[in-house]
């Protein structure tokens, strides 16, 4: 009567698959894909730092900030891409990352989040290059292209990193 049915197996399969289907996170950054790849991923200002998520969001850590900011809102990440030079909106697969929901952290601490509309999720230390799925390139607020990490790695330009980019937290 209570034996395993196909429906039970299907529901179990979906439950296990759920984390693999997690939504992308996004980060707007001035650093080129070559710079991000050369660094091994998107690095925080101080990967060995120990500042809290609360202090990170309140921007009190400065150069000692061990957190990498991302957002779950693609449009929000794209909204900051208005530089006359190239700006990149990176799509990040959160699988395998210890992603912290900053809104939940503030609720847990019984504090008011100063920027809940940013929908910020943060990762301590770094986001490895392999978690970067693709990126959109913007110039003057207009999208000029989309490149996947795989396309990039198979192109000739992947081995020549450029220097001098600026980081921007989305």
The gist of it:
With 170 residues, this protein is α+β, with helices and mostly antiparallel strands. It is built from 6 helices and 9 strands.
What's the topology here?
Layout lengths: L5 H12 L7 E5 L3 H6 L2 E3 L9 H5 L9 E5 L2 H6 L6 E7 L6 E3 H7 L11 E5 L1 E3 L3 E8 L2 E7 H6 L16
Antiparallel strand pairs: 1-4, 2-7, 3-6, 4-8, 5-6, 8-9
InterPro entries: Enterotoxin_A
Organism: Amorphotheca resinae ATCC 22711
Pfam family, one: Enterotoxin_a
SSE run: HEHEHEHEEHEEEEH
CATH architecture: Alpha-Beta Complex
Q: What name does the CATH topology carry? A: Heat-Labile Enterotoxin, Chain A
Question: What is the structural class?
Answer: alpha+beta
Signal peptide: 1-22
Pfam family, one: Enterotoxin_a
Keywords: Disulfide bond, Signal, Toxin, Virulence
Region (Disordered): 147-170
Characterization of the model:
The chain has 170 residues and is an alpha+beta fold. It has one domain (22-159): Heat-Labile Enterotoxin, Chain A, CATH 3.90.210.10. It contains six helices and nine strands. The protein has helices spanning 6-17, 33-38, 53-57, 74-79, 102-108, 149-154, and strands at 25-29, 41-43, 67-71, 86-92, 99-101, 120-124, 126-128, 132-139, 142-148. A four-stranded antiparallel β-sheet has the order 1-4-8-9. Strands 3-6-5 form a three-stranded antiparallel β-sheet. The radius of gyration is 18 Å and the shape is globular. Residues 13-22 and 160-169 have low confidence and may be disordered. Residues 1-22 form the signal peptide. It holds the Pfam family Enterotoxin_a. Residues 147-170 are annotated as: Disordered. GO terms for molecular function: toxin activity. Keywords: Disulfide bond, Signal, Toxin, Virulence.
């Amino acid at each position: 009567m209570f034996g395993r049915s196909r429906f039970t197996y299907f529901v179990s399969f979906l439950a296990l698959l759920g984390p693999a289907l997690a939504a992308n996170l996004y980060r707007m950054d001035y650093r080129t894909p070559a710079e991000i790849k050369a660094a091994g991923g998107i690095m925080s200002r101080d990967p060995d730092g120990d500042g809290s998520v609360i202090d990170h969001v309140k921007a009190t850590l400065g150069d000692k900030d061990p957190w990498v900011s991302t957002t779950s809102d693609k449009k929000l990440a794209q909204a900051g891409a208005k530089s006359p030079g190239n700006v990149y909106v990176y799509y990040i697969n959160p699988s395998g990352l210890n992603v912290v929901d900053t809104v939940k952290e503030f609720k847990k601490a019984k504090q008011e989040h100063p920027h809940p509309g940013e929908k910020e999720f943060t990762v301590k230390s770094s986001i490895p290059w392999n978690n970067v799925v693709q990126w959109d390139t913007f110039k003057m607020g207009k999208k000029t292209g989309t490149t996947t990490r795989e396309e990039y790695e198979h192109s000739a330009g992947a081995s020549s990193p450029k220097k001098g980019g600026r980081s921007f937290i989305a």
